UniProtKB/TrEMBL annotation:
<dbReference type="InterPro" id="IPR050273">
    <property type="entry name" value="GppA/Ppx_hydrolase"/>
</dbReference>
<protein>
    <submittedName>
        <fullName>Exopolyphosphatase / guanosine-5'-triphosphate,3'-diphosphate pyrophosphatase</fullName>
    </submittedName>
</protein>
<dbReference type="GO" id="GO:0016462">
    <property type="term" value="F:pyrophosphatase activity"/>
</dbReference>
<dbReference type="Pfam" id="PF02541">
    <property type="entry name" value="Ppx-GppA"/>
</dbReference>
<dbReference type="InterPro" id="IPR043129">
    <property type="entry name" value="ATPase_NBD"/>
</dbReference>
<comment type="similarity">
    <text>Belongs to the GppA/Ppx family.</text>
</comment>
<dbReference type="InterPro" id="IPR003695">
    <property type="entry name" value="Ppx_GppA_N"/>
</dbReference>
<feature type="domain" description="Ppx/GppA phosphatase N-terminal">
    <location>
        <begin position="18"/>
        <end position="303"/>
    </location>
</feature>
Length: 306
């Protein structure tokens, strides 16, 4: 059994995974998450803010120390949508290197999709199914179609819970006019990809990332988040619609008290749920399975050679 450590710097949050792998399976793992919102206003001005970089560096230093406590020196660390879109990403990469002695790999949307798909396959109850992985992050959404034989189609779209919130939502609660603009904006970005995906049979949709896991936790009304409760949990389109209806008429203050919803995600969850609902609706899919295995697990399994 060998230990591996990985960190994912997402637009909304930074996540840590320490995993012990034996014979192609994770036998024991530890996860942590900190919402640092490094992608704050990146879509608007193209830069990582000083405050967001500082928040994120503090978390990365802490997470790197946690991994090294397990005796792991080779730390895998990736950055996704917000960092790759930022003009000052190299400044951030160099500052993290100086502070935490780790090398950030700023990955493409295509590689992000591949790692997420690999992680899902390793955690799937039905690996022989043709699956559509839906990874809604803070800055982008990856859609990956494939199965045990490999990826058939993969695309990264500039649709994310933080990005779309900053672009379209200014009222609290959201007005009908803003909701219509949000939905139209999502449809515009996703239209060509979803039309292409309609050509293929899809046995199951699997959701990964913060929006998907939060949806699962909210449907289950979890007081305390439990990975085992969420992994491979099925959410129907009807349940998603009911949740979307509840969230869209609520104020930010009301959402911060909702079961299953972390207060730091309360301001962006409506956009995330709307993205997910539009994708499922357009593809005619009536449920989605939530997976706790995602790009972090994919990164670990890739490193382990499995």
């Amino acid at each position: 059994m060998k230990a591996y450590g990985a960190i994912d710097i997402g637009t909304n949050s930074i996540r840590l995974l320490v995993a012990y792998v034996e014979k192609g399976k994770i036998t024991r793992s530890y996860k942590d998450l900190e919402t640092t919102r490094i992608g704050e206003n990146v879509d608007k001005n193209g830069l990582l803010s000083e405050a967001a970089m500082e928040r994120s560096m503090q978390t990365i230093v802490r997470f790197a120390e946690r991994i090294r406590e397990e005796g792991i020196q080779d730390i895998q660390i990736i950055a996704t949508s917000a960092v790759r879109d930022a003009e000052n990403r190299e400044d951030f990469v160099h500052r993290v290197k100086a502070a935490a002695n780790v090398d950030i790999d700023v990955i493409s949307g295509e590689r992000e999709a591949y790692l997420g798909f690999l992680g899902v396959l390793k955690g799937s109850k039905d690996p022989e199914e043709r699956i559509l992985v839906i990874d809604i992050g803070g800055g982008s959404t990856e859609l990956i179609l494939g199965g045990s034989s490999g990826i058939q189609q993969a695309v990264s779209l500039n649709l994310g819970a933080v990005r779309m919130t900053e672009k379209y939502i200014t009222t609290d609660p959201i007005t009908q006019e803003e909701m219509e603009r949000l939905m139209a904006g999502i449809d515009l970005v996703a239209a060509d990809t979803l039309e292409s995906l309609k050509k293929y049979p899809i046995d199951r949709a699997i959701g990964i990332g913060g929006t998907a896991t939060t949806v699962g936790a909210m449907v289950k009304k979890l007081e305390v988040y439990d990975r085992d409760e969420i992994h491979n949990f099925d959410v129907s389109q009807q349940q998603l619609k009911e949740l979307w209806t509840k969230v869209k008429v609520s104020t930010l203050e009301e959402r911060t008290g909702m079961q299953g919803l972390h207060p730091k995600r309360a301001d962006v969850i409506l956009a995330g749920i709307t993205i997910l609902d539009r994708i499922l609706t357009k593809l005619g899919l009536d449920n989605i399975r939530i997976s706790e295995y995602d790009n972090l697990e994919g990164l670990i399994f890739e490193k382990a050679g499995w």
